[in-house]
């Protein structure tokens, strides 16, 4: 091929090596131009999706007997040119079939019925039945006296395969014709899908005829094949599993014979045409392949899950005894259209949708046409859910076809007309890409080519009739169109469910869907709202009027409601959103932030639908909303600030105040802000339990220290004493939860010539003012100062001097007080006095020789009494986070007993932290690593659960909910998937605490493996 020839072919887009030589051999090219009479052939070849592939196939075809006639017809038949070159360049599998059976080229010749082939189920069924030697005029195979094939075994499979491929070739060439010749008609993708379903029906009927001939069941056996999925909806792909259910009569001894026939149908069709999948039958793979009609009905009435009724939306008889098939559909239809009344409807449907997304490999999610976000399944899921909700009262919605049902939803006002049309257009576009991808090798696939595979993307674009737009080549246009349609599907998926709800509560334009109030309530109930009427009231309040805020709310709510429906408690979430919106009505950036920052809206709805604590704090700390935004790297640095930095910032802010009252107000406000930040990060899974405890402890310490500083700064005259605040309990251990009190001891020491009495009296006044300021009623979360662990408890003085503490512990201190001091840690006040107090108590809490056996016995006795007397009446000991088996008290007392016995000899054990104490005990060989793991897991689980209870209920609590939405919300706050079984969380909790308790019994109580 000379340079001029190459240049001329390149103008046609034909650039493959040796193309000119091949064309010359075919008699279509001479020198640098087409042979006269072949110009249109060259242009048709140039339009092929893959000119090189098409030319290689033509070269092979030219070596077959019919080539001379094909060549002659190509010069005059535009239809043949368009179909042949488009098919050979789009599908290697169909090209191979044509070359193996070249006499079938006439299937591509131009005739009126091939320019726009009409649906012709009866013709296709007759053709495939004849291929296996069955009489098309006999009763359908599977019915009494039905026709049977004369071909069986491998001979029947081969004959059926060839006949099926012939039909597929004819249909695909008509589908692709407009690619090769733009003047030829374009087949709509839904028409192609319907005819593919017809072809599948015909193939199943022929397979049934073969199976009946091979198995020879009794004449009285009737077998019906019910099409499901895309076959049932007459929207089949070129390469799909054909989902079926088998039903037989009269049952009894004939059930086994029917099962053999059904099994053989699946094998014959699988070897000849496509896989037949019967896993949608009752009990799935574990269930019987064939059941009687009564058997099916009984199962669906008693045991079927919601997703099974969703699948039955598309049930349609496709082969076998037609009367039995109709009886089956008539029997299950009433149950299908009442599935939305089931209590588990929303949970089941949402769980199925999540499973679809979760099962996509992460490296394929951005290329998944079918299952990914904004893909085909989103459209189908949305349409089916709306059908189930509104089809109970509207028979017009009972179509098994996605596009027909979508049109009916638009006509009925359940979906806006523009939205319905746009969603249908996107669905057709995605299905077209799916069809082209599957045609290439007749393999089942839904994956777009990778972004860097430009050759594959170019082929797909040309096969899908995509053209460059002047600014971009076909690859750019394809990628842009795919992304545009995917985004549109995602957006409309949200609007389909929620936008029409607003028609019940506000004025919308005429082209919007108009739901009645009752229809809106039905949809809300189906989507998870326990009080639809209350939800509509909130929507009225949010969208009423003509203000800009109401307009933005109408835009936002479809998205927000979609997010809320996936939260544990949509009712509480919507109420909370209304209250937050009303409280922040005058905040100019609030709605704008939700509108412009998708991550903020998504996170806020999850928080409001999970936690009662968050909305209580949010109305007074709205600035935290800005922290919900993600950074350019996808993280949330503002939500995960360093606790040390927070404490310094709080004390700096408070120090600027001029009065103790303003200082405490600033400190409490800062703490409110930080509690909200921590709660948000906790629910969103951005902080682990140790980080949460550290952050809560740090901010509470800072508040106490800042308040003490402010009160001392306001004192007039010379100070008669130094003061120190000692954190105790969970505060001292650095393990505060959201609802914890601040357990403290107050210590003083006289200055100058002051007496102990003067010092204690002055210090008591300071302390009381600190407690009064922090305890003043306020909308902010309370930080209760609890000094009940002081010597003599509530009967003792609030403040003691250092010497008084020394004398008390020396003369009257009991072992439980030494145990309490294990968590003593200075948190505020005079640094020197803090050190002196620590030096005083260290020999008491870390005795050099440990504690006596009698003291160990006493601690065990006290623990047993606490367990028996303090557990609330009716509490479940297996799920009480504080006093329950294996819970917080069990683990903490175990660590503290080890410290009392061994910290005198093992300095590393001298820590106020429970988890650090566990780790050091293992390092010292006092307990095994396995024991540390079990105790640590029990403590973390109980602490996380206790925090989650406060987050969900908005008030402290130690008892896990037994069931219901609160339990689901607690599980969700702990990271368990919403919609899953919260019993999984309960099982995990009980398992962790049970194992923890086993270690406690052995280490704390000293029980052997075989003792009580």
Cα gyration radius (Å)? 38 Å
Anisotropy-based shape: elongated
| CATH uppermost class of the domain at 345-516 | Mainly Alpha
* Level-2 CATH architecture of the domain at 345-516: Up-down Bundle
Total count of strands: 12
Strand content: 5-15%
Q: Would you tell me the structural class of the helices and strands?
A: mainly alpha
What is the mean predicted local confidence, pLDDT?
90
How far the N terminus sits from the C terminus, by CA atoms, comes to 96 Å
Instruction: State the major sheet.
Output: 5 strands, mixed
Q: What name does the CATH topology of the domain at 345-516 carry?
A: Four Helix Bundle (Hemerythrin (Met), subunit A)
Uncertain stretches: none
- Number of distinct helices: 43
Helix percentage: 55-70%
Name the CATH superfamily classification of the domain at 345-516: Nucleotidyltransferases  domain 2
